[in-house]
Specification:
alpha+beta, 3 domains, disordered N terminus, OB fold (Dihydrolipoamide Acetyltransferase, E2P), globular, Replication protein A OB domain-containing protein, about 290 residues, REPA_OB_2, NA-bd_OB-fold, five-stranded mixed β-barrel, DNA binding, about 20% helix, eight-stranded mixed β-sheet
Length: about 290
Amino acid sequence: MFLLVLSSDSETSHDLNENLTMVPILKSSISGLSSVSRNTEINEQISNVSSNIESNQTIYHTQTTINDYFIDDINSFQLIRDLNENSAKFCIRCKIIYISPIRIFGTNNKVFDAIVCDSEDEIKVVGFNDDVDRIYHLMTIIIENGRIQKSNENYRTAYSLLEIRLVTNTNVQLYNSNSFKPNIKITKKTIHDISQLVNGSNVDTEGEIINDNGVSTTTSQINGSTFHRRSIKIQDETGKINVTIWNKKNEEIPDNVINQHIRIRNGKINVYNDYVSINVSDRTIIQLY
């Protein structure tokens, strides 16, 4: 029994010695792990401090406006007033304020003339054949290049001696801009002074629309032609006057016009039984604002 115990103790002692031998190794490993853990923690703390330092640094930004990305298109256009007979290359933006009926001449050749204006001035435009179809139904356009020459004095506009002839290298495009608001030029007469004019006189005026009777249709008993007319009343600081808008010119007037202002150029005075009114026809230029 004793020997067996010794043998057992010897094995136990051997196992114990092995276990005791492993203790420093385990301690060393644990110590190493602890050191690694501490180093990792220190590194994380250093990283966090570095990150905090970076996040607390003042960052300066250069402010960029929208104009740095988009060219101001106003600077890319010339004004009508700057055009002359030597202006072979130019680019203007303008609104068509008058356009004539299309006329046929020669062998199926077409021609039209128009008046265009920008914010300050106006000029006549003449187009032939393909140009008629290209721009006849446009309103606000860009005209690039053309031939500028003096207009025939019998057909020029009241405010320009020149005209633009659309030629082969002329480029015409539709132009859309909410900020571009051209105004037609007029030689204004007050409503009080209009009452002194004779029947058939041409007149320019403007005023606030205070009454609108709508569009009515009349059929001629002579040839059966149909006429559309719209009767409105306008006022300025000197008085009131009735205005009759005829036929296709009504297409330029929206349904609701009360309290809007209208500018009339080349209206026609109508006097009937001492009652004075203004007729607006195809040759009249009008603008609502």
